[in-house]
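User: Here's a protein and a ligand (zinc ion). What would the complex look like?
Assistant: Let me lay out the input and then the predicted complex.
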Amino acid sequence: MDENNSSENNPPRKNLFSINKIHYARGDRPAVDCILCGVTGKDSRVDNLSIAETELSIISVNLYPYNPGHLIIFPKRHLLSITEVTEEEILDIHKLTVKAVNLLSAAWKTTGFNVGYNIGKNSGGSIPHIHQHIVPRFPNEVGFLDVFCNTRIVIYDPFQMKEEIVRLWNSADED
Ligand SMILES: [Zn+2]
């Protein structure tokens, strides 16, 4: 099975097991105070899956994607609450969101997206530094049970996904 095949009639739903989640579940996280500040500061102990950055924010592939193309956008400032985000920052995040949704829709014929924040202890979020998720949705996905049983299958290796989305992102800039 060729997991790189993503032709128009055959959306990218070929699967690999997300085995790296096991390390995360065991607590093998990088020894930094904040992973997202580590990304912002280009700390070598943190996997850097950034696609692009502006003066205020960064858009990155999620290291543990729920779906192919699962992205996160976060302010560079270490903010723990959406009430601390400035209007400039939220507008910047929104612009990055629009660009990401547009380019994934065009490139992958994505049929839906979930966009939002996990806020507070019981929301399911695991990184306190606030970040907005963009989760592309595809027809015939497996259900949430698979996600929570840690058997969720994910199309691309996140690093491979980063390469592909960076390519899309940069070619959109040239339009
Ligand atoms: Zn932080």
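Summary: Helices lie at 20-25, 35-40, 87-108, 144-148, 158-173.
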